[in-house]
Structures are given as C-alpha cells and as structure tokens.
C-alpha cells in the first residue's frame, strides 16, 4: 500500500468513526462537550505519562479517555448544583484541566517531548511512519488500526442501542419510565465520544476530531429531518470531506487536517445556504412568496369590500389603492400584475375590477 | 516586600502583571454579560476563529506589529460571530453546534494558512503562532498601551450602555417591546467580547481565553444578586488572579503565565461556588441541616 493510500484510508476511517459518534451527540445538543473532551486529552496524557513513568500508549489512551469522562462528570455535577449554567460549567472545567496539563509539563516534564501544538493540530501525514509491529511483523499504520477499530466499535454501538438511543434522545422521560436507563445510555454515549476523540486526535489532531464529530451530523440535520437519512448523510459527508480535504491538501501542499476542516466548512455553509427546505435561500424565497401572496389577497379583499358601493369607482383606481395601502408604484404594479396573471382581477383605464374567480377568493380569504 | 518592590520596579514583572490585571478587568466585566446570556462558550469559539485573521493580516502586510495582528484577529472574530448568530437565529441548529462549527472550521482554515506562511520561508514569520498560544512573559510596553486603549474603549461602551445591556441580558423580549432592538444590542455586546478576546490572545492564548471570560463572572455571581456588584466583583477577581498568576510565573521556575492565571481563576470559582454569600453550596447545606434539626427538636 502506498503511503498516500494509507493516509487517505486513515482520513476516511477518521471521518466515518467521528460522524458515527457525533450523530446522537448533536441531537442531544451537546456539541461543545466534544470540544471540552478534546481539550481534556492533554492532562490525561500527562497523567498517564506520570503514572506509567514514561510514554506508554495504552496507559496514555486510558488516561486521556478517563480525563474526557472526568470532564463530562464534573460539568454535569456543576450544572446540577444549579450555581452555573451548562455552558459556563463547560467553560470552567476544560480550561482548568488544560492549564493543569500545561503547568505539569512545563514544571516537571520540561525535558520530555510532549508537543502541545501537535495535540491540537495533529499530523496525519506522519501516519504511515508509525506502524504497528508485533513480533517483528509490520502490520501497517497504527492509526489505521486504531481508527478502523473505532469505526467497528461505533457502528456496533449504534446498531445495538439504536432504538434505546433514539427513544432517550427524543423523550428521556418516557425512556426512563419504560426502564431504559437513559443515564446509563448517556454515559455510554459519552464514553464512545471520548474514545473516538482520543483515538482520532493522534492521527488528525484534537480540533479536526471535533470538526469531524460535529460538522457532518449538523449538516445532515439541515438536509433531512429523518434520523436514518441523517445518519447516512453524515457518514457520506464525513467520509467524502475527509478524502476531498486530503486531496486538496496534497495538491496545494498545506496542512491535511486543516484542509479537511475547511472542506467540512464549505459543505456546511453550502447546505446552510442551499438546503432544499431549511436553507437560507429557500427561506428568503418562501418569505418573498408569502409576502406577495398576502399583498395580493389584501388587494382582492379591498376591491370586494367596496364592490357595489357608491365609492367603488374612486376606490378601485390603482393610484388610490397605492395611497391607501401604503404601496410604492413599483410594488402596486407588481401586485396587480400578479393578480391579473392569476385571473382574479381585470385592469382597464387605471382601475381594477374583480373577476368572478377573484370574488370567490376574496370571500374565502375574508372568511379565514 | 520584595515582591511589592519588584511589582513596581522590575520591568518584566511590572509589564506582565499590568497586562494580566488589565485583561482580567476587561474580560471579567464583559464575561458577566456573556455568562448571563448563556454565551459563555462564545469566547472559546471566537478566540479560535481569530487564527485565520491573524494569518491573513500577516500575509497581506508582512508585519508582525501587534496592532496589525490584533486588527486581523478582530475582523476574523467579528465574521465568526456574525456567522454564529446567523446560524442560531435563522436555523434550527442549536447554539452549541453553531459555536462548534465556526470554531473548528475557522481554526482549520488558520492552520492551513499557517502552513502556507511556513512554506514562504521568510525568517520573519517565526513565532507567529505564539500570538495565539499566549506569551504574557514577553509583553512589551507598547502592547500594554495598545491593550489599554482598546480595552478602555470597550469598558467605556459598557459604562455608557449599561442600562441597555442589562435589559437585554435579563429580558430581551421586554427590551423589544419598549423599542430597543435586542438583536442589535446583543450583537454589540457580543462584538465587545471580540475586543476582550483580541486583548487576551496575546496574554493567555486561544484555549485559556474562555476561562478568562467565564470564571470571574461565575465566581462573582455566587456573591451577589445585583448586576452592578457582580460586574465589580468579576473585575476584581479577574485583576487579582491576573496579578497573582503573573507573580507566580515570574518568581517560580517553569510556571507559564497563562495557565497560572487560569488556575488562580478556577480556584476562585470553586471557592465561590462553595462559600459564596449569595448562593454558596455550603451555606445551603448548613441551612438545610439547621431547619431539619429545628423540625426534629422536641418542643
């Protein structure tokens, strides 16, 4: 396997594993918890290093995951004390842990090489050099094994607890009443998020791990309201963005993890603008359509009110309507054109008159 | 006494302590509004979002002047803020997700730009990332003056619009009904956060910035139920922790300034949550214990 293929596979595995972990996290509105967990990795690694008196991958992994879970538990304890809100609790806990990690490194482990920058950025380009060797046999990049296992673990987790997760996410009360133990599920999900973040950060960096957990599911939620479709879409978005980001980064020779995050951003903002039902463009068009429809209806009701009264002739001139309803000339031209197009009014000598169909619509609107 | 003498006459310590104290005041004051409006994590997102701005400012001007980089950081932070507010106001995406997206995507863009700058191979670029990871120990007088002016303006704005900000922080609907625009005032308030962040990037760096905003406010909230007092206490807590952290880092070997300040702040927050006079956890327990004893006492 060439090193380019290996990097691409690592990126793809990271994209899929993280998106899988993110779907329910996003639905539970806990995106920033992933950010907090990712920052707690540093003190966890430091603790693992101190405990095992040297670099040990397994102890480091356990330490980092434990620090992530410690963050979750502390944030929840603070929130439950009702002295601070959840966002403030998150913002209190992870900087404190991170500061502790940096302090211990610079005070006691100054001669050890733990690169704080590398924890944040990660360097996926080194993935092929760090291979898994057992008994002298080379089994390929270590991060590919880690992320591959995470894909399997997360997929099994989602498949096993799909029904329970869905229920406890959308109706925690009902889930508890039916005996599904939402609290236990919650901590299981948090553990999955924590091990995914820890597993992904060494390959792609903490920030990209968070990007891959949050952005694909949120983008998917803009595109569909059905849960199975959201899961499928976020997998596709996560995987494809990882590959495209890697391609673009090699083309321009820039940071791979940074570029993947940028591609994710492009996908998200495109969806934000152009999503078929909830996109900003669709919203603006809908609002414009509704505004013009409402104005047309006002016109019809106005004409109907004054029909067969002595002042009908005066009230039906376009100029008078314009003044009375506070429309600009351009607006009234557009609206009367719209009404004529629909066959609701006829226009002659600067005056409007209802057609039979227009009279019917006006009655319907007035009764509404 | 030695410390007091150094605080006044030692150039490095004086600068670091002054800069940190000043940052503590500005972020303490602005943090109160952020925490009350449940925008505590906005600071974290916007400080990350500043990275591409710093890089672009350097790429366009080739200068590492603090004011240039700060301007770049501020513009990127503003754009990030407007995007976050648009996402929250116009879609069903929750605020945490909106923050997370802008945070990671902007930071990713910044990392990409950093690699572009590194490839250009000019010696001048060294240390650009230090702007973001904080290097309070290297603060020079010129930076302190810049921080003072920008932060002073932000504090003046808060003083002038205190009434409006208070209204929007506690009851945006009511503010709307009496003719203020809660969206516009809210945007202005969040925009001032960007100012605090830009000042803070120099001193404590991206990651610890959110603690500078949240911890003083969270601590102050435990001692009072009045906003004016809360703002005052938060400013004091921020300044005190800033000076203490600065002294610790200069006098102790291998203690970086940013983490020292943040750990001081965290300690203040924990102590306040436990013992704060307005809603401290411990007093609550004591009160409950007493009333239970009173109930059970034989009459």
Short characterization:
The complex is a heterodimer of chains A (368) and B (299). Chain A has 368 residues and is mainly α.
Q: What percent of the residues of chain A sit in helical stretches (DSSP H or I)? A: over 70%
Question: N-to-C SSE series of chain B?
Answer: HHHHHHHHHHHHHH
What structural class should be given to the helix and strand makeup of chain A?
mainly alpha
Overall mean pLDDT score of chain A?
87
Which protein chains make the most extensive interface, counting residues with beta carbons within 8 Å of the other chain's beta carbons? A-B, 61 and 62 residues
Oligomer state of the chains in this structure: heterodimer
Question: Pairing-aware structural class of the strands and helices of chain B?
Answer: mainly alpha
The major sheet of chain B is characterized as: none
Shape type of chain A: elongated
In which range does the helix fraction of chain B lie? over 70%
Low confidence ranges of chain A? none
Total strands of chain B: 0
Structure, described:
The complex is a heterodimer of chains A (368) and B (299). Chain A is mostly helical. Chain A is built from 16 helices and four strands. Chain A is elongated, with a radius of gyration of 30 Å. The mean pLDDT of chain A is 87. Chain B has 299 residues and is mainly α. The N and C termini of chain B lie far apart (58 Å). The model of chain B has no long low-confidence stretch (mean pLDDT 87). In chain B, α1 (2-9) packs across α2, α2 (11-36) packs across α11 and α8 (162-170) packs across α10. Classes of the chains: A mainly alpha (368), B mainly alpha (299).
